[in-house]
Amino acid sequence: MQKLIFGNWKMNLSAADAVKLAKKTSAFALDASRIKVGVFPSFPALERVAFALKGSAIILGGQDCFWASSGAFTGEISPSQLKESGCTHVLIGHSERRQNFNETDEMVNRKMRAALAAGLTPIMCVGETDNDRRNGQWSNVIAGQTAKGLAGVEVSGGQEIVIAYEPVWAIGTGRACAPEDARKAHALIMNTVIELFAPSVAKNNFRIIYGGSVDAGNIGSYLFQEGIDGALVGGASQRGDAFAAVVAAAQK
Ligand code: PEP
After folding, report:
1. How far apart are CA 48 and CA 37, in angstroms?
2. Cα 42 to Cα 246: distance, rounded to the nearest angstrom
3. Is the CB of 85 under 6 A from ligand 1?
4. Cα distances (angstroms) measured from residue 229 to each of 8, 12, 137, 232
5. How sure is the predictor about 252, in pLDDT bands with cuts at 50, 70 and 90?
6. Residue 231 has pLDDT above 90, yes or no
7. Is the CB of 103 under 6 A from ligand 1?
8. What pLDDT, on the 0 to 100 scale, is given for residue 225?
């Protein structure tokens, strides 16, 4: 199955720079049978990046969405507005949103259901903090975030749900998670999914990817692990040469 390599550009890059990076990304040599690449620019760049990616195989996603489809929610973006801007995917519950904007599991769940109802593929981020790991709570935190985020979610047909295991302490720190620990976390997430959905749905409709200080040097050690279907890449996706190196290494 294709590995997913998704670049989270966060609140970085001017729209013009995002377009330049998108053009570089669309020129990557991709073996479509092995890899699917996506980029997640900030909102004001979406339409221009969508235009730059036209005709390429690169996926476009938003970094967040609100759960209502329209209304008096100043500053928010609906799933249908993301689609209108050319997105097929959306990140939900990134730890930077959970930590800086107090996003709760219940909010993540509402966003998940809204994104799916609009036909977007959500990438739901889960992961423990340093403290959680020190206190032996990592598995409870990950299983809890996964189960609460997916509560009441219905999966139909070929709808895909991606879960990104992103230990908070590994994001942007250069302290990447040991691949064996990531494998264990992915297995736990898959077991949690299996408790909520039919095994065939868990197997066919869910993908689980790792995120946290991924670069060209370590991507191979994650993709090699059973149950790791790709990577969500922050810092190393925000420069053409570094992202190209990650994608090249992912195809080795
Ligand atoms: C992220 O923002 O989701 C992320 C994993 O960032 P980084 O690769 O920089 O750790």
Report:
1. 18
2. 21
3. no
4. 17, 26, 24, 10
5. confident
6. yes
7. no
8. 96
Report the helix count and the strand count for the chain, using DSSP H and E. Answer: 11, 8
What is the model's pLDDT at position 1? Answer: 86
pLDDT digits (tens, 9 = 90+) for 183-206: 999 999 999 999 999 999 999 999
Q: DSSP alpha helices (H): ranges in the chain? A: 15-26, 46-53, 79-84, 95-100, 105-117, 130-134, 138-150, 179-196, 199-205, 219-223, 240-250
pTM attached to this predicted model: 0.97
Report which of residues 1 and 162 the model is more confident about: 162
Which of helix, strand or coil describes residue 109? helix
% helix, strand, coil for the chain, step of 5: 45, 15, 40
Amino acid at 231: A
- Decide if 160 is catalytic: no
- The active-site residue, picked from 96, 103, 128, 166, is 166
Mean pLDDT of 139-160: 96
Q: 215 C-alpha vs ligand 1 centroid, how far in Å?
A: 10
Q: Is 211 in the pocket of ligand 1 (CB under 6 A)?
A: yes
Phi-psi category of residue 152: left, alpha or beta, with phi > 0 → left and psi -120 to 50 → alpha: left
